[in-house]
Amino acid sequence: MYKLLIRPVFFLFDPEKIHHFTFSLLRFINKIPLIPSLLRGLYIVEDSRLERTLFGLTFKNPVGLAAGFDKDAKLYNELGNLGFGFVEIGTLTPKAQPGNPKKRLFRLKSDKAIINRMGFNNGGVDEAVTRLKKPSKSFKERGILIGGNIGKNKLTPNEEAVNDYKVCFNALYDYVDYFVVNVSSPNTPNLRELQDKEPLTKLLKELKSENSKKQNPKPILLKIAPDLTDSQLMDIIAIVNDTKIDGVIATNTTISRDGLTSDKKDETGGLSGKPLTNRSTEVIRFLAEKSNKAFPIIGVGGIHTATDALEKLDAGADLIQLYTGFIYEGPKLVKTINKALL
């Protein structure tokens, strides 16, 4: 029904406007008695064989929602009714910021892709924390995990970026199950420079030190770009081993435009969706093989079918996340993947 009736209508409108409309619609229908139960019945696959235990956490199933969809933790309760085993909110920054000027989100329908140059638009970490204090009873009972994706404000120079990440880490600590350090978005000026070995090692060690002060340290993962060279990926493996962080999310959006056919292909920003399928899988396989599977990997990028998901898991991913595939294929994709796993 989604692909036949709902998506064609949604795709007639501006992507960012329809995103906000969808949020409002999901909030509204989830307030109608029995609708949340109906959605859970339609999309949730309950089976202990789907459970995955990583870095001390048990995921009800390995299919999560990637960061960027619910930036401000406005809809995680409702999204939890659509079958996800975990929902990652963010990217959050210490201070609220509007992001880049609109128009900044583009559908590439012929490529089954999206280009975004949002620029970490969010209401600030404190506003998100207010919402994270109010998980629904159903959300808590079903054990859906929440990840906190953190970044730096646009105006914060890279030399001071570690302070921004610490602010977000400490603010979110009591309300998320794991953290993701985002240094790989192409839409914040100079952010990707923090992926270089020296600044990245320093940033992760500082966060590990902050984490060690807590009574119950939380897992910290690093989200990397798909555009890194083999040499840079070897540096990532060395950094993970050196800093002892808990895992890697591969991958973020790409700045590559290889093979695109859409007339919007030259828009600046990060590309996600089907064109990223093979490259993100290559990065997962490289990390898994070259590290001898030394750390967990969450695979994301171009998952539009159950086959795409299985390929990422076969390449070495322990969990997967959806974003653009969820927009193009609808919530049934989550159920389809879990059914295929069984």
TrEMBL record:
This is Dihydroorotate dehydrogenase (quinone). It is an enzyme of class 1 (oxidoreductase). Keywords: Cell membrane, Flavoprotein, FMN, Membrane, Oxidoreductase, Pyrimidine biosynthesis. It is found in: Cell membrane; Membrane. Coiled coil: none annotated. GO terms for cellular component: cytoplasm; plasma membrane. Pathway: Pyrimidine metabolism; UMP biosynthesis via de novo pathway; orotate from (S)-dihydroorotate (quinone route): step 1/1. It comes from Xanthomarina gelatinilytica. Substrate binds at K71, N116, R117, M118, G119, F120, N182, N187, N252, T253. Its cofactor is FMN. It is a peripheral membrane protein. Its EC number is 1.3.5.2. Catalyzes the conversion of dihydroorotate to orotate with quinone as electron acceptor. It catalyses: (S)-dihydroorotate + a quinone = orotate + a quinol. GO terms for molecular function: dihydroorotate dehydrogenase (quinone) activity. FMN binds at A67, G68, F69, D70, K71, T91, N149, N182, K223, T251, G273, G302, Y323, T324. One of its GO terms (biological process) is 'de novo' UMP biosynthetic process.
